[in-house]
């Protein structure tokens, strides 16, 4: 159905471009003299919200893929909403919300009376916070309807809970769960008897790697309310030029399509940090379209349409497409090159139907990086085993392992040669793992240097950031040198470990002694810095493997 409905309890709220999540809920003010019909409650559907002028694409409903397939059972197997044991749920492709009524003996409960524990695969809610007398047992009285193994993994740090009140005075426990993967769930709970998270591994010898688990796999008490600095947690620290590789336009007599081609490696890294549903945002007006990275604020595409569309009937989806129109200079050799893409569908307005001869009258985009082919599956697994031998296919584990690969940073300056030296001390086990899986470590790292920023990444099956930060002054990127060296674990200790030694030439005007040579940055700080400075250049590497120069 194309009829707009009130979103009810789960209505999608407006977000300004580049705003953090704490700014949610701010409605756009109406100018004086506007039609009174526009001064209405916020309207929306499963894709986003509509204020009478602009449609804000923000969400991906679970029913989009199946809504035009008649007599299908798939949509009923993975419903958009439902009730299980008194718990109501509503879901999109990126999140699921649980509603549990507080009535009867639970009517007087407050947030202080409830204990909510989450892991990335389990949820437990109990009444009372007194410590249990039996070790290993949950504290208080467990609410069975809200406790159990989840149907799939969630991102615990981006999930939260609260007590909500309806206009009639009823109270609900509202639990917001952010899905780990962009997909629909059959329901909130895992119904099969054997959960993969309970799987045990018994190695035959000491050489067998044990599966690596993260802290998110353990039940942890969660305080009520939004996670602290949620907006910063949702920043990728990646520019649009790195995530996107081009834009194509398509149309028929009824619809116009904008296809944003995505880099598969960059998308894997980005979705390790941020849910796929939170990556992009699009604002559709009758005569214009704007696409941007939702929390980083980097523009992807902004243009004026050739003719009018109906904004509130817009839709979008993530898909995988065969790319036939490759940009000039591309090195793609595969005759059937596929890449992930974001496809936005615009419904042409009455009186504007027919072929337009193109979707945009004028459009602005950044200079996208060229598409690239992925390395072979064998090489990707080989590299992933060096980075994360216990979990080579778990992206979140690989992201954490890359950040922990650098155990210490030492910096120095030479006032004679006017150079700064940054030494990144690497994990003690790296050399042994590289020899075990027969990987040349000179192809394992990628370095990007800007005038005031430096990033070092690990090249596994994708580029995982190991260290990124700001420099104490401007440098000349073309004069950067780096090498792999050996360092002693401690003065007088015979044991050694590997380290990356990076030499930077100070630029004119920055040759005085720097207060700090290098300061590590979080992804949100990188985004703020890139908004005011040019993006980091391509890796300082020899070919696609990232060999040290």
Summarize this entry quickly.
The chain has 549 residues and is mainly beta.
Indicate the mean pLDDT.
Answer: 83
Radius of gyration over all CA atoms, rounded: 26 Å
First-residue to last-residue Cα separation: 58 Å
- Overall number of strands: 29
Annotation field: number of helices:
8
β content, as a range?
25-35%
The helix fraction, in percent, is: 10-25%
Low-confidence stretches: 1-41, 540-549
Shape: globular
Taking strands numbered 1, 2, ... along the chain, how are they ordered across the largest sheet? Answer: 1-2-3-16-17-18-21
Structural class: mainly beta
Main pleated-sheet profile = 7 strands, antiparallel
Keywords:
549 residues, 7-stranded antiparallel beta sheet, 11% helix, disordered N terminus, 29 strands
Describe the protein's architecture and organization:
The relative contact order is 0.10. By secondary structure, this protein is mainly beta.
Write the layout of secondary structure elements.
Elements (H helix, E strand, L loop, with lengths): L42 E3 L2 E3 L4 E3 L16 H4 L3 E4 L2 E5 L3 E8 L11 E5 L3 E6 L13 E2 L5 E2 L10 E6 L5 E8 L41 E3 L7 H4 L6 H4 E8 L3 E8 L1 H10 L6 E6 L2 E6 L5 E7 L3 E14 L15 E11 L11 E5 L12 H11 L7 H11 E9 L4 E8 L3 H7 L8 E5 L3 E7 L3 E9 L9 E8 L7 E10 L12 E3 L2 H10 L17
Antiparallel strand pairs: 1-2, 2-3, 3-16, 4-5, 5-6, 6-12, 7-8, 7-13, 8-9, 8-10, 11-12, 14-15, 15-20, 16-17, 17-18, 18-21, 19-20, 22-23, 23-28, 24-25, 25-26, 26-29, 27-28
């Amino acid at each position: 159905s194309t009829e707009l409905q009130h979103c009810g309890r789960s209505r999608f709220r407006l977000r300004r471009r580049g705003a953090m999540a704490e700014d949610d809920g701010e409605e756009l003010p109406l100018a004086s003299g506007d039609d009174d019909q526009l001064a209405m409650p916020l309207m929306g559907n499963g894709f986003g919200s509509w204020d009478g002028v602009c449609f804000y694409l923000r969400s991906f409903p679970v029913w989009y893929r199946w809504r035009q397939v008649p007599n299908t059972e798939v949509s009923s197997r993975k419903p958009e909403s439902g009730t299980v044991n008194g718990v109501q749920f509503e879901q999109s492709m990126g999140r699921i919300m649980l509603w549990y009524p507080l009535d009867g003996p639970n009517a007087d409960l407050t947030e202080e009376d409830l204990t909510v524990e989450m892991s990335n695969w389990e949820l437990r809610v109990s009444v009372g916070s007194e410590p249990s007398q039996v070790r290993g047992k949950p504290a208080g009285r467990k609410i069975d309807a809200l406790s159990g193994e989840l149907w799939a993994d969630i991102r615990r740090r981006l999930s939260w809970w609260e007590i909500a009140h309806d206009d009639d005075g009823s109270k609900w426990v509202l639990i917001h769960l952010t899905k780990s993967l962009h997909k629909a769930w059959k329901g909130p709970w895992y119904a099969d008897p054997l959960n993969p998270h309970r799987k045990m591994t018994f190695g035959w010898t000491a050489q067998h790697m044990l599966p690596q688990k993260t802290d998110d796999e353990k039940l942890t008490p969660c305080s009520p309310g939004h996670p602290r600095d949620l907006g910063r947690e949702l920043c990728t620290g990646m520019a649009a030029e790195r995530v996107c590789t081009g834009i194509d336009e398509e149309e028929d007599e009824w619809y116009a399509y904008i296809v944003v081609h995505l880099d598969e490696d960059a998308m894997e890294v980005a979705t390790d940090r941020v849910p796929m549903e939170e990556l992009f945002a699009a604002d559709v007006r009758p005569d214009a379209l704007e696409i941007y990275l939702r929390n980083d604020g980097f523009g992807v595409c902004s243009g004026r349409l050739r003719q009018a569309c109906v904004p509130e009937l817009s839709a979008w989806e993530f898909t995988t497409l065969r790319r036939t129109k490759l940009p000039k200079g591309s090195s793609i050799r595969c005759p059937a090159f596929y890449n992930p893409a974001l496809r936005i569908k615009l419904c042409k307005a009455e009186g504007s139907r027919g072929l337009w001869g193109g979707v945009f009258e004028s459009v602005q985009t950044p200079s996208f990086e060229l598409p690239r082919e992925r390395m072979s599956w064998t090489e990707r697994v080989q590299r992933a085993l060096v980075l994360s031998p216990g979990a080579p296919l778990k992206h979140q584990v690989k992201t954490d392992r890359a950040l922990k690969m650098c155990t210490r940073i030492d910096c120095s300056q030479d006032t004679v040669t006017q150079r700064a030296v940054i030494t990144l001390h690497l994990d003690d086990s790296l050399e042994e793992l590289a020899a075990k899986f027969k990987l040349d470590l000179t192809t394992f790292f990628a370095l990007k240097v800007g005038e005031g920023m430096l990033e070092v990444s690990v090249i596994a099956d994708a580029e995982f950031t190991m260290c990124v930060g700001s420099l104490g002054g401007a440098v000349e990127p073309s004069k950067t040198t780096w090498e792999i060296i050996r360092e002693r674990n401690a003065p007088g200790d015979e044991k050694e470990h590997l380290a990356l030694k990076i030499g930077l030439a100070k630029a004119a005007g920055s040759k005085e002694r720097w207060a700090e040579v290098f300061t590590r940055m979080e992804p949100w700080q990188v985004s703020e810095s890139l908004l005011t400075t040019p993006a980091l250049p391509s890796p300082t590497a020899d070919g696609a493997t990232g060999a040290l120069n």
